[in-house]
Amino acid sequence: MELNQLLIKQLTILSIPEKSAKTVTFHPQRNLITGENDVGKSSIIKSIYHSLGADVHFDSVWEKADAISLLTFSYSNKDYMILRSRDHFGLFDIHGNLLKSFDSIIKGLSPYFAKLFNNRLLLKQSKTNQRIPASPAIQFLPFYIDQDKGWAKPWDSFEGLGVFGGFKRDLINFVTGIRPNEYFLLSERIDQLSAKLTMLKNESGVLVSAKKTVEKHIPNATFDIDIKAFKRDIDRLLVKLEVLKNKENEYRKNLIKQKNKEVFIDNEIAIVSKSIREINKDYEHSLNDLDCEITCPTCNATYENSMVSRFGLLEDIDTCRSLLSDYLEEKKKITKEVTKLENQLNLQVAKVREITDLLNEKKGKVRLKDLIQNESSKQVKEIFNRSQSNYSTQIGEIEEQKSGLEIDRSKLNNKERKESIISRFNTLIDLFLIKLNVHTLNSDWFSDIPLSVKSQGSDTPRALLAYYYAILFTSKEFTSLPLFPLVIDSPNQQDQDATNRNKIIKFIFDNTPDDYQLILGTVDLHGVEYDGHTISPATKLQLLDKDEFEDGYNKIAPLLDRLQASLIAES
């Protein structure tokens, strides 16, 4: 087993509102999820990625279940558990110790997984145009074919991929080894230097413009201040200052209002957390001493320790946990609004300070009029020249650094290596197209690894399957990227005939490398023999089972408590 292999071991899905759960265990090599339509095959597959922060499309019925998922996986021979409750994530070791909590995928989970999997792919974020670590969806994308989107066009199996504009070419170059990890690290540094150069050049341009303006008004004479004009400037600044101060006061009032809300939410969170602990103690006490009576922690009333009472305690705990989740969401929104208002207030204070400084400066000019008149235009020009020289030095140094990094990056973008990789990809896809009985397409059209392959009718799913596997084999040969599970959902697309249905299933089993875990979801095997691990959900429109609720609840509830406690502490 490769040290950088990722294996899916077990998935537990829990719906507290529906009082049902489901636990599925996976084999480290081959896994077949089979059964009739609408028994939950795709829901199992989607929940794997949902747990890992790679968002998928669930139908409205599934979303109403408000499912909490717990995925056990191993990486580099070390076991982990990841818990997802709404948009909150907790990463645990196999003993249930919380390693890290996250309330954001892009800012939290993405960089953590990038570091864990040594994935240095940096992509440009659509909103900011800044390079950031690839999201879990991008990291797992080459290894997943969704039952709907994945068979229509490649690189589209997950939701939310629009966070990164034009990512496909970067991803293909990365996953096939055309541009390795180091290439994207250098690209990030080059982008940072480019942004700094732009800023310095803009500031330098403003300085040059200011210098020309000053030289027009004081060509070779001493300063001569027009007192009347100066007074008009002062009056305008005072009016502007008044407006700014009013705006500052408005931000302060809004900030105080949000801070008060934050204090209220914190108090509510503390109260609900305390209630969960107290009810948990009562529940544990009721289990340990079945003959005792239960005293309500709220009203001090005494109740018989019966099964109904104990279930009532569990209902109270679930209600508190749900309420706690709502409060945490509200806390997150309020914290974001507080941060926004604080930034606006700080900006407004800076503007007020700037106007105040200008007023003080102008008052100073009036008091020091005689001294200013003795200053020559030459001294002013020297100040501008020194500043301009400083900008020129900085710009030159950064351009030299950038040029050096671009040379280093160009060495990684080796033409011969690229041609070798493309040639190998073309050989592989031609071989796989033949195996899958696709004769309307070949690599003669490809001068580069394409973003997609175009075919017609029922040939399209088989051509796409050949394309995915050619990418997979090329990556395995030319990179040391992690060996993520290969997950294929519903390959029988576009009304395949009996011969081609058989070829598709046989191709998947025969051509998936042994060091990749395979998870295949399909209605049936179309005549292909298989004696490996099989997962067979059977109930129509009901993947989760009420009989599994207690086990699922006991497994997930303690981890959820630790996650929520961590989120409270961090907030």
List keywords for this structure.
571 residues, alpha/beta, Rossmann fold, five-stranded parallel beta sheet, 13% strand, flat, P-loop_NTPase, Rad50/SbcC-type AAA domain-containing protein, coiled coil
Q: Shape from CA axes?
A: flat
Gyration radius, rounded:
32 Å
Report the average pLDDT across residues.
Answer: 85
- In terms of DSSP E residues, the strand content is 5-15%
- CATH homologous superfamily classification of the largest domain: P-loop containing nucleotide triphosphate hydrolases
Query: Major sheet: size, sense and barrel closure?
Result: 6 strands, antiparallel
What structural class should be given to the helix and strand makeup? alpha/beta
> What is the CATH topology assignment of the largest domain?
Rossmann fold
Give, in order, the helices and strands.
EEEHHEEEEHEEHEHHHEEHHHHHEHEEH
* Secondary structure tally: strands: 15
* First-residue to last-residue Cα separation: 41 Å
Strands across the major sheet, in which order? 2-1-4-5-6-7
Number of domains: 3
